[in-house]
Write a structure and sequence with these properties.
alpha/beta, Rossmann fold, 33% helix, globular, binds adenosine monophosphate
């Protein structure tokens, strides 16, 4: 994530209170998205931002809004919000509010959160006197607006954060209705990690002559993230994962699973194996999710198991490894998942457990979106060395071929070993990383199918 050293926040015309808070938050130089978006918003323009979490987009929309509210001074009306930020998930909304509070330190700015899954009463009470900045998820906000508990008619700044995810989650009608209820002369910013047609259409209907700001080309992955793919049959993934986690250099790990059920199953196994692990997904209560996230943030929880939706937007610094227990249904989620590590210029690792027999099309889709061939592990994991697990005792052991994992009978071979040649030599490094090797390179897209640990010639 690049920063522009020569052009500080001070040159953007932000007021002294904000500059002090920015400084106290350790934000010395504006990030690219901030450099592009803050002056335009201060000048009153709408923004169409293509940016992921980690790009610094929250401050990119929070600072101009705060600047304008501070300039206007205290003039709130009951039940109203001067600025509204819509976010797809509760976790992201909580984080956005934290950022607003951090950046508004020293100014008299009131914020409120309106989220599903928690009691309405406290939210209604908080809105009674009106607030400067309301951060909300669309479903609950729609309910409270319908019940006349919140009045959006004075809302002159609207931000849609992670618009693609909000639409994925089926919030399109709520979002449209909410936007319609805001002040006619509002200023709007829409941020999205991807720009599918549906988002572009929404943007066209809500934004007026927006300035388009973009930090990374759509679907690309940060260069500082070292990616590696291990071909593992699904039935052995839990054992492989547990074995990998014995390595304590995997110090702060998010494990992604496609389903809530999968997240629970993985969490149970890791707990049984003695790991310090917590799970977040949509079936967990808001409290349980927040507790898990707090534990992960403060380091008391080493491993967080998460589904894509629950984890989207989560900003935790210092995540050493992202492990894709399985490949996501939506290829763009791969980019979001691995973007949890390698933040703020730190190096990060992304490990993917891939079953070619079951996930071939998802794998191809990820390669298409990332426009790269995902790098296979230099040295395949020897699946026969894994401890037997009672839960798997009814399953066929992998067939060993050439000393590597073994290929399920009758499955088409897949790429992974040099064609007809020797298996790649282990480098004497951790078997699950390509450490020491080059970060994932952009390579021409080619496909060459060979199998799980293909047989040595
Ligand atoms: P976001 O993309 O808004 O989730 O921000 C990602 C992380 O970058 C957060 O932890 C911010 O505190 C941090 N951050 C945002 N802007 C800057 C900046 N200009 N300098 C340093 N860190 C920043």
């Amino acid at each position: 994530m690049e920063t522009i050293e020569t052009n500080g926040f001070a040159t953007m015309g932000l007021n002294a209170i904000l500059l002090k808070a920015v400084d106290a938050a350790g934000m010395i130089a504006p990030k690219s998205i901030q450099q592009q978006a803050i002056p335009a918003q201060l000048a009153g323009q709408d923004i169409l931002g293509i940016a992921q979490t980690g790009s610094g987009k929250t401050a990119a929309f929070a600072l101009p809004i705060l600047q304008k509210i501070i300039t206007i001074g205290d003039k709130r009306k009951g039940k109203t919000a001067r600025a509204l930020v819509l976010a797809p998930t509760r976790e992201l909304a909580v984080q956005i509010e934290e950022t607003f509070r951090t950046l508004a330190k020293g100014a008299h700015i009131s914020t409120a959160l309106v989220l599903g899954g928690v009691s309405r009463i406290a939210q209604i009470n908080k809105m009674q006197a009106g607030v400067d900045v309301l951060i909300a998820t669309p479903g609950r906000l729609t309910d409270l607006v319908r019940d006349n508990r919140i009045d959006l008619s004075e809302t002159r700044w609207l931000v849609l954060d992670e618009a693609d995810r909000m639409l994925d989650m089926g919030f399109i009608n709520d979002v449209k209705k909410i936007a319609k209820g805001t002040h006619r002369d509002r200023q709007t910013a829409l941020f999205s990690a991807t720009m599918p047609q549906e988002v572009a259409t929404l943007a066209a209907s809500l934004l007026r002559n927006p300035v388009r700001v973009e930090v990374a080309p759509q679907g690309t992955t940060a260069a500082e993230i070292k990616q590696v793919v291990h071909m593992i049959p699904t039935r052995q993934k839990k054992q492989v994962l547990s074995a990998m986690l014995k390595d304590e250099t995997l110090s702060s790990v998010i494990v992604f699973t496609r389903t809530k059920h999968g997240a629970d199953a993985v969490t149970r196994i890791l707990e049984k194996d003695g790991y310090n692990v917590a799970a977040i997904h949509g079936n967990k209560s808001q409290n349980a999710r927040q507790r898990a996230l707090n534990g992960f943030k403060d380091g008391s929880v080493r491993i967080l198991v998460a589904t894509d939706i629950a984890a989207r937007g989560i900003d935790v610094v210092g995540i050493s490894h992202v492990i894709n227990f399985d490949l996501p249904d939506e290829p763009e989620s791969y980019v979001h998942r691995i973007g949890r590590t390698g933040r703020n210029g730190a190096s990060g690792h992304a490990i993917t457990l891939y079953d070619p027999a079951e996930e071939g099309s998802k794998f191809k889709a990820v390669e298409r979106v990332t426009r790269m061939r995902l790098p296979l592990a230099d040295s395949p994991i020897d699946l026969s060395s894994l401890p037997a697990r009672a839960a798997n005792s009814d399953q066929r052991p992998p067939r060993r071929e050439g000393g590597n994992g073994g290929s399920p009978a009758g499955k088409k071979p897949h790429r992974g070993q040099p064609a007809g040649g020797k298996p790649r030599e282990p480098r004497g490094e951790k078997i699950w990383s390509n450490d020491g090797g080059a970060p994932a390179q952009k390579r021409p897209f080619r496909r060459n199918k060979k199998g799980f640990g293909a047989k040595a010639a």
